[in-house]
Design goal:
Blueprint: H1 2-36, E1 64-68, H2 74-81, E2 86-91, H3 97-108, E3 112-117, H4 128-137, E4 140-143, E5 154-158, E6 162-166, E7 185-192, H5 195-209, E8 221-224, H6 228-238, E9 242-246, E10 250-251, H7 253-264, E11 268-274, H8 285-291, E12 296-301, E13 305-306, E14 310-313, E15 317-321, E16 325-326, H9 327-331, E17 335-340, H10 343-359, E18 360-362
Parallel strand pairs: 2-3, 3-4, 7-13, 9-11, 10-16, 11-12
Antiparallel strand pairs: 1-7, 2-5, 5-6, 6-7, 8-17, 9-14, 12-18, 14-15, 15-17
Helix pairs in contact: 2-3, 3-4, 6-7
Length: about 375
């Protein structure tokens, strides 16, 4: 009997030790997940910080895509004309008078129109005239926050219910071109009514308008200087079969190395950049030389000016937004993009990419 009791006690103690060990291990695991926050959507950063911690989600669903120059300026002006309460716009370049008049009409009918423009766009004109005309129509205007090297974002929120996340500025060449000019861009825009995404874009606008910090918790948004570098690396490193990129710039060594690594592990990489003859300088030459090689092909679009910024991974997930593949864009600018996994959007992105590849020329 004594031996039996002793054995029971020993078993009980042993069981307690095992349970305590498991508990400690589970607690340690929980702590690790919480502190890294890499996929939980819980990472956050101040608006002018450069945390660049990836917390990408599975990609936005139930979104729409517009493609320029195919869809023209009306995709933007109709959305503005149909607005009922408010239009908030944060933009790099704004020179399109058709869009300007649409915003003036919205302000004149009493909507809360707020427009924030970059005061010193590189190679662009001062926004003073546009801001003055909008103010005269009743809109509220600001220049963008000085916390960033440039505000290169192209974002718009309508009625607090729909967000436009775009590669396109509001210029004639970006929104379909015109009969007076053959200069037309390849551009994309995501139209998103998912409440979480819309609220996050509105929060970024509000923070930049008020010169304050923003806490980013939306796992689908790609925002410089908060998480864009980390998200680009995560996307590129996740590719198993194909990686299709349209970009205006190839000027960041870390992203270039990730592209090279993708090719070396067997991913078929295709990259379309602007034709050197259509750019002011051949500033992508070093980047092209860095990435061309095993399974990585680079072509330049000779038909349209390649202003697009997209990354398509295995036909399953894609980035669309304002971020260029450049150090300033990823680390120092205010930029806005989104990860999408909507299959209809992915199909059109891929079809457009293949069209552009067919009309591009090998470097």
């Amino acid at each position: 009997m004594h031996n039996s009791i002793t054995d029971n006690k020993r078993a009980s103690v042993l069981l307690s030790i095992i349970m305590l060990t498991l508990c400690l291990l589970m607690t340690a695991c929980d702590v690790t997940i919480t502190t890294t926050g890499s996929n939980s959507g819980s990472a956050s950063s101040s608006g002018n910080g450069s945390t660049n911690t990836s917390f990408t989600g599975s990609g936005a669903q139930n979104v729409q895509l517009y493609v320029e120059p195919d869809d023209g300026v009306t995709v933007v002006t109709q959305a503005i004309d149909n607005a009922q309460k408010s239009i908030w716009l944060e933009m790099y370049l704004f020179t399109n008078t058709t869009v300007l008049h649409a915003l003036e009409r919205a302000a004149q009918r009493g909507l809360d129109v707020r427009v924030m423009l970059e005061p010193h766009p590189v190679g662009g004109s001062s926004p003073t005239r546009v801001l003055d005309e909008l103010q005269a129509a009743g809109a509220k205007t600001e220049t963008t926050s000085p916390a960033f090297t440039l505000t290169h974002e192209k974002g718009m929120v309508i009625d607090g219910k729909t967000a436009f996340i775009m590669t396109s500025n509001f210029s004639v060449s970006a929104l379909g071109g015109s009969s007076h000019s053959s200069y037309r861009n390849r551009e994309y825009g995501i139209i998103d009514s998912n409440p979480q995404d819309v609220q996050a874009v509105a929060d970024i606008f509000t923070a930049d308008w008020n010169r304050s910090n923003v806490q980013l918790t939306d796992p689908n948004l790609v925002v410089s200087p908060i998480n864009s570098r980390a998200d680009f690396l995560k996307l590129i490193n996740s590719a198993h079969h194909t990686l299709d990129i349209e970009a205006e710039e190839m000027q960041d060594s870390q992203i270039e190395q990730a592209i090279v690594s993708a090719g070396k592990r067997g991913v078929q990489v295709e990259v379309i950049l602007p034709s050197a003859s259509s750019a002011s300088t051949d500033s992508n030459r070093n980047g092209i030389d860095a990435i061309q090689g095993q399974n990585v092909k680079v072509e330049e679009d000779a038909k349209l000016y390649m202003h697009a910024k997209i990354i398509i991974v295995d036909g399953q997930e894609a980035f669309v937004g304002s971020e260029n593949i450049s150090t300033n864009s990823l680390d120092h600018n205010r930029e806005l993009g989104i990860i999408v996994s909507d299959q209809n959007v992915l199909n059109r992105l891929e079809q457009t990419f293949q069209t552009d590849w067919g009309t591009s020329q090998a470097v």
